[in-house]
Here is the input.
Amino acid sequence: MSEHDNGPGPCISFVTLGVADLARSRAFYAGIGLREHARSDEHVAFYDLGGQVLALFPRSALAEDAGVEPAPAASGLGFSLSRNVRDESDVQRLLDRAERAGGTITRAASPPPWGGVRGYFADPDGFAWEVAWNPAMDLDAEGRIRFGT
Amino acid sequence: MSEHDNGPGPCISFVTLGVADLARSRAFYAGIGLREHARSDEHVAFYDLGGQVLALFPRSALAEDAGVEPAPAASGLGFSLSRNVRDESDVQRLLDRAERAGGTITRAASPPPWGGVRGYFADPDGFAWEVAWNPAMDLDAEGRIRFGT
Here is the structure.
């Protein structure tokens, strides 16, 4: 197997959230400052994150494409997406923005056992986003996360 | 708000999967060719994807950290992670490897309505991974996805 298969190297091209109400989710993600890519249409919203795409797609359509049953609404946390930030003060600022956009703060900015400061918000479907400032991790010039030394 | 807030730019630093059995999941992801980062320990597994980290963390611990209830096991599809590949033949090859590692093929390699070829496998917790060859998308030298022109 080639190095490309075994990583390290990018292997998540898309993160696709299966949403209950595409219009509602679009409004929320616009509210937290994400701009849709022009390739978006009435069926799907794409956000170019610089080498990775966040997509919003109706949950039933996504499940049908994957050949499985959709999760029921409000089925609890199965995973999380984290955004690491450069400055400790960014944590509260981004949580505040998410709340103004209609998100629910599920964990206020506070120190986790492993250091730094983090908080969580839930998007309109309950998808969990962590906003984290962690001095043990580095962000490169392009905003990509790197394990610190 | 700065350009950094509004993107496009990386904003998913970690994708953390809340797993039922950390040892089982570690074995599966090793089986599909991912190598753990040295920062991993008995509580969490990290995979450096080149500017993004995939993490495996017990679901109950992740939910507790986020301040919400964990999803029940086998609660259906809520989201998917996609790996786009350079060559059409990679789709079948990576699906085969996932199946050998104990994954479940939920959608065999086949053409979706939007072009190209894709298939899906489920990891031991049922997390949906798409393997996609899509000629309308580009992969740069580092394997990062770019919208084609």
Remarks:
- Chain A has a mean pLDDT of 90.
- Residues 74-149 of chain A form a domain with the 2,3-Dihydroxybiphenyl 1,2-Dioxygenase; domain 1 fold (CATH 3.10.180.10).
- Chain A touches chain B through 72 residues (CB under 8 Å).
